[in-house]
Design a protein that fits this description.
Keywords: ATP-binding, Ligase, Nucleotide-binding, Protein biosynthesis, Transferase. One of its GO terms (molecular function) is asparaginyl-tRNA synthase (glutamine-hydrolyzing) activity. The protein is α+β, with helices and mostly antiparallel strands. 38% of the residues lie in helices and 20% in strands. The chain has 17 helices and 14 strands. The strands form 3 sheets. It has a 9-stranded mixed beta sheet. A hairpin with a 2-residue loop joins strand 5 and strand 6. Helix 8 crosses helix 9 and helix 9 runs parallel beside helix 10. 37% of the residues are buried.
């Protein structure tokens, strides 16, 4: 069995010999005001165990009541994924003991989900251009979230090696939708990119629906990535592993890539792949074993006796269908036309997960090209260095638009603007606060610029003489001298004008 120190085969080597099959299970916390089966608040960040009641703590005698808004959100997600909405469905008890499950069971749905048999599409880049990949949706079902465990005293934050654990039940009972794909069989080389594209598409969809902020870094959207391998040319699925709670788009792609390579190493060693859950480690780019994966019968599902079945009327379903927003693909096409981006430019924006950020920046007053430049340039580089998503690095679309506004007003040039963005990303405040603290505004005072121009002409008499004689080549050197003297804070165009005025050109 390969260990963490075993050299894994390269991805290219694996896909030459095996075909991966994936299944994605994505949990989305719904943005309801109250929990799934009680009236407790769902507000994020409250003191531990202050948003609980007898129902979400599972105390004897407490009875659940279904959150209507959560049901509507579930149906809208299902409709947006082209699913059938059940005419009749039930909740079920999923029985297992875990410290963050105060009832020792989870109210979920088993064989009768609210939405089933749907599809969506994602687009990925290939050497032959964009490829549209259909993704089948097996089901989308309702359930409640668990509490949160905090393992204290160890070096990894996990239970192994910890001295003790703390439990916060504020999250217990928050409404969840679990969206499960059908087996995803794609060209082997595309598998990791398809996994990332699917989760990206799903996040974009639920945000457009307004049912969740889907902030992966806050646990509002978590992906369980199932991977198996089968030898090239065969049809029988291999044994799968399930990498749990992957919480960024980048990590989804990396985790799938790693598991494909790890499965191949296991098979190459002549060992069987173990059906188990795995933990993803962002710092090492590896997974480690969790627990042996249970089958459905291990959970002893049975109908939830304290809740009546749901029977959504067709009128209700059609009313909700009428609330669906513009489909993500249509939205992308519309925005591309409005922004005047080429196909390649739009793919870059989408692949970077920046479309919503660029849209918000444009709405805040920026031109599209400027918005794209910042999100795919300085900000993307910072996100990569930190291993974070673009919307996690500490700058808002409104702040980016403000930087663009200051450039347009002549207060900043590109060099100074980069320093302003750098300051905002470093937590130094808003763009205006960074400008004031660092003294970064463009020097536009003609008296100050004129003195710097005179100094440059005096220091470079040969260059000045050539310009007087009609040779414009040395103008750049003179401008550079002034820019150096003003630490890059001069308006280069105004400096050029002053140099030519001084030299009679």
């Amino acid at each position: 069995m390969p260990t963490a120190t075993t050299a894994l085969p390269s991805f290219d080597d694996v896909i030459a010999r095996f075909d991966p099959v994936m299944g994605m299970e994505v949990h989305v916390e719904l943005g309801t005001v109250t929990k799934m089966f009680c009236g407790c608040s769902t507000e994020f960040g409250a003191e531990p165990n202050t948003q609980v009641c007898p129902t979400c703590l599972g105390l004897p005698g407490s009875l659940p009541v279904v959150n209507r808004t959560a049901v509507e959100s579930a149906m809208r997600i299902g409709l947006a994924l082209n699913c059938h909405i059940a005419e009749y469905c039930r909740f079920a008890r999923k029985n297992y003991f875990y410290p963050d499950m105060p009832k020792n069971f989870q109210i979920s749905q088993y064989d009768e989900p609210i939405a089933f048999d749907g599809w969506t599409e994602v687009t990925v880049d290939t050497d032959d251009g964009p490829r549209v990949v259909p993704i089948g949706i097996e089901r989308a079902h309702m359930e409640e979230d668990t509490g949160k465990s905090l393992h204290v005293g160890g070096s990894t934050g996990r239970i192994h090696g910890a001295s003790h654990s703390l439990l916060d039940y504020n999250r217990a009972g928050i409404p969840l939708i679990e969206i499960v794909t059908k087996p995803i069989e794609v060209e082997a080389a595309l598998a990791p990119a398809v996994a990332r594209a699917y989760v990206t598409e799903l996040r974009e969809l639920v945000r457009a629906l307004g049912v969740s902020e889907a902030r992966m870094e806050l646990g509002q959207m978590r992906c369980d990535a199932n991977v198996s391998l089968r030898p090239r040319g065969t049809t029988t699925f291999g044994t799968r592993s399930e990498t749990k709670n992957v919480n960024s788009l980048r990590s989804v792609e990396r985790a799938v890539t790693y598991e494909i390579r790890r499965h191949a190493a296991v098979l190459d060693a002549g060992e069987p792949v173990v059906q188990e859950t795995r933990h993803w480690h962002e710092d090492t780019g590896e997974t480690t074993a969790g627990r042996t994966k249970e089958e459905a019968e291990d959970y002893r599902y049975f109908p939830e006796p304290d809740l009546v079945p749901l029977a959504p009327s067709r009128e209700w379903v059609e009313e909700l269908r009428g609330t669906l927003p513009e489909p993500p693909a249509a939205r992308r096409a519309r925005l591309q036309g409005e922004w005047g981006f080429t196909d390649l430019e739009m793919r870059d924006v989408v692949n970077a997960g920046a479309m919503g950020l660029v849209e918000e920046t444009v709405t805040a007053g920026s031109d599209p090209a400027g918005a794209k430049k910042w999100w795919l340039g300085e900000i993307a580089r910072t996100a990569n260095e930190r291993g974070a998503e673009l919307d996690q690095v500490g700058i808002t679309p409104q702040q980016v638009a403000r930087v663009q506004e200051l450039i347009g007003a002549g207060t900043l040039n590109d060099k100074l603007a980069r320093q302003v963005v750098e300051g905002v990303l470093a937590g130094e405040g808003s763009p205006d606060e960074v400008i004031e603290a660092r003294g970064l505004a463009v020097v536009s005072d003609d008296a100050a610029l004129g003195a710097a121009v005179d100094d440059a002409i005096a220091a470079m008499p040969d260059a000045a003489e050539k310009v007087r004689g009609g040779n414009m080549g040395p103008v750049g050197a003179l401008i550079g001298s002034v820019m150096k003297a003003t630490q890059g804070q001069a308006d280069a165009q105004r400096v050029r004008e002053l140099i030519l005025q001084r030299l009679g050109e």
